[in-house]
């Protein structure tokens, strides 16, 4: 029996049982599509969360002053460590593993424009802060080294701050009184979608040169406030693979100037965002694997359906098998016939499932989705896993029923009612 004849008989069998074949194929199609879609969603979640983490800043470490927990050089434990702008300069000059650094000086002072007023935080930073904290402009320009060195009264508005102070009006180039001190708006930031922050979303703040903020809005006179006080110091590591060594280098450097042990974890409070990013990545990797396993099980259930249909088909066609053997059909002919039916069923279903799954992912990637739903990313690994699983299903679901049909004795088959 040639391939053309086998195909012709297979299609005739499918036409005779349209609904049964459709339902069986649907199980395979949905199984393949589930593998591609669920793994794609898992990868989409991973990429989406990574992008949201990078909106806070790339390879970022934030340092706050703490209290010492051990005695060093005759100094008692429990001393408060206050960070100053000199500490930021020291990190910049001494810590070669640090790529960029900036102090942060925050002042909650009133702002008044010609259209509205607000009482948002003004953040004094060095120009390097803008790059590693992912401050991207929608209009205007960023702060420059000259703005910082000359203490220019210029300010960049976060998206929410701009909408409040200049509702529906152009902000760049406008004057803004900050605690009665005139500043010029030089830029407005793009709206940021942040899932993490350490003092509030960047959309809410106004950013100005550190030198201008520290001069125009000096620290209040009270205990614990020292000359050059800053709220925190933020830095970018040169290599993410060395972030732990970089943090330890900063601890040792500040330990020398503030007289505390570099191993004292309480002397400085450090938030290493790369640790959090790795944790999130590991969590979503596990979720992706779980999604993939669930989808593979769904596909296997579809394969069980194929095997069940083929076993039913063998039982229903017992007399046909006996007649064909009596007319000279060989064991190989019967085996090829039933295996071909199973193979065609699974291969066609698999091709439809791959097309549907990839098409669905592409369609979801092309349309806007709610913030909590990521755009799925088609994974080559999921396609390979689907094809391999489908191959196993084809062999298992086709060969066993075909073997049963081929082993039937002609006399017993002809007597079957």
- Please indicate the percent range of residues in DSSP E strands (runs of 2 or more): 5-15%
Q: In this structure, how is the largest beta sheet organized? A: 12 strands, mixed
User: In terms of per-residue confidence, which ranges show pLDDT below 50 for 5 or more consecutive residues?
Assistant: none
User: Order of SSEs, N→C?
Assistant: HHEHEEEEHEHEHEEEHEHEHHHHH
Termini separation: 27 Å
Tally of DSSP β-strands: 12
The rounded Rg comes to 34 Å
Global geometry = elongated
**What class do helices, strands and sheet pairing give?**
alpha+beta
Average pLDDT for all residues: 83
- Helix percent band: 40-55%
Tally of helical runs: 13
Structure description:
By secondary structure, this protein is an alpha+beta fold. Helices cover 54% and strands 15% of the residues. It is built from 13 helices and twelve strands. It has helices at 3-16, 18-56, 85-94, 129-132, 145-149, 159-165, 210-216, 243-258, 273-316, 318-326, 331-366, 380-406, 410-415; strands at residues 60-65, 98-108, 111-112, 117-118, 121-125, 137-140, 154-157, 175-178, 181-189, 206-209, 232-237, 268-272. Strands 1, 2, 3, 4, 5, 6, 7, 8, 9, 10, 11 and 12 form a twelve-stranded mixed β-sheet that branches. Helix 2 runs antiparallel to helix 9 (273-316), helix 9 (273-316) packs parallel to helix 12 (380-406) and helix 11 (331-366) runs antiparallel to helix 12 (380-406). The chain is elongated. The two termini are 27 Å apart. The mean pLDDT is 83.
């Amino acid at each position: 029996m040639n391939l053309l004849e086998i195909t012709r008989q297979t299609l005739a069998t499918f036409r005779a049982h349209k609904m049964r074949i459709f339902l069986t194929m649907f199980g395979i199609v949905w199984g393949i599509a589930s593998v591609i879609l669920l793994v794609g969603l898992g990868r989409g979640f991973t990429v989406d969360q990574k992008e949201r983490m990078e909106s806070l800043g790339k390879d970022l470490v934030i340092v706050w002053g703490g209290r010492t927990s051990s005695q060093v050089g005759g100094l008692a434990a429990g001393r408060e460590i206050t960070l100053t702008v000199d500490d930021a300069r020291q990190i910049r000059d001494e810590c070669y593993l640090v790529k960029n650094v900036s102090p942060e000086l925050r002042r909650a002072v009133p702002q008044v424009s010609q259209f509205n007023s607000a009482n948002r935080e003004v953040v004094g930073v060095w120009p390097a802060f803008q790059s590693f904290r992912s401050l991207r402009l929608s209009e205007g320009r960023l702060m420059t080294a000259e703005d910082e060195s000359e203490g220019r009264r210029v300010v960049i508005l976060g998206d929410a701050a701009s909408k409040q102070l200049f509702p529906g009006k152009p902000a760049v180039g406008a004057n803004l009184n900050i605690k009665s001190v005139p500043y010029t708006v030089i830029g407005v930031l793009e709206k940021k979608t942040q899932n993490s922050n350490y003092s509030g979303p960047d959309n809410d703040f106004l950013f100005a040169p550190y030198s201008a903020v520290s001069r125009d809005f000096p620290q209040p006179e009270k205990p614990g406030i020292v000359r050059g006080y800053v709220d925190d110091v933020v830095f970018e590591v040169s290599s993410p693979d060395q972030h732990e060594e970089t943090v330890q280098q900063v601890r040792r450097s500040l330990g020398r100037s503030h007289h505390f042990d570099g191993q004292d974890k309480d002397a400085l409070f450090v938030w290493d965002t790369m640790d959090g990013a790795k944790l999130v990545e590991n969590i979503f990797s596990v979720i992706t694997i779980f999604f993939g396993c669930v989808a593979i099980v769904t596909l296997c259930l579809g394969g069980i359906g194929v095997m069940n249909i083929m076993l039913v088909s063998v039982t229903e066609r017992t007399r046909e098998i006996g007649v064909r053997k009596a007319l000279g059909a060989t064991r190989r002919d019967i085996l090829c016939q039933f295996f071909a039916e199973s193979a065609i069923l699974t291969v066609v279903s698999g091709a439809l499932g791959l097309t549907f799954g990839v098409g669905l992912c592409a369609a979801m990637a092309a349309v806007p989705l709610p913030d909590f739903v990521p755009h799925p990313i088609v994974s080559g690994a999921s396609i390979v896993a689907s094809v391999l699983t489908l191959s196993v299903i084809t062999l298992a679901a086709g060969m066993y029923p075909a073997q049963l049909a081929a082993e039937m004795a002609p006399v017993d088959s002809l007597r079957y009612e």
